[in-house]
Write a structure and sequence with these properties.
By secondary structure, this protein is mainly β. The chain has one domain. It is 12% helix and 47% strand. It is built from 1 helix and 7 strands; from the N terminus they run E-E-H-E-E-E-E-E. Strands 3, 4, 5, 6 and 7 form a 5-stranded antiparallel sheet that branches. Strand 5 and strand 6 form a beta hairpin. The protein is globular and about 35 Å long. The relative contact order is 0.25. Bound molecules: zinc ion (ZN). The site of zinc ion has 8 residues, from loops. This is Small CPxCG-related zinc finger protein. InterPro entries: DUF5795.
Length: 74
């Protein structure tokens, strides 16, 4: 388990994925450091791979300091 602090709250991979997705996810992998800084505030960005549905795998990114989040859907 790789819990991290995001915006002052401890998150698990599942709760981080839900923050990014805006709804519950089926499964989430470990949280990793994304090799980038937040475009909104310059804070550290972390990433997590997750399955929002049985047929989809998404890598989502989230700033640890502000509301900025993104995923790799295009
Ligand atoms: Zn930020």
């Amino acid at each position: 388990m790789s819990n991290r602090v995001v915006q002052g709250r401890m998150v698990t991979p599942e709760t981080l994925a839900e923050l990014i997705e805006g709804e519950s996810v089926l499964e989430a992998e470990s949280i990793e450091d994304a090799d980038e800084n937040c475009p909104a505030c310059g804070g550290d960005v972390i990433q997590v791979g997750y399955m929002p549905s049985v047929t989809e795998f998404v890598v989502g990114r989230k700033c640890q300091e502000c509301d900025w989040a993104a995923d790799d859907r295009d």
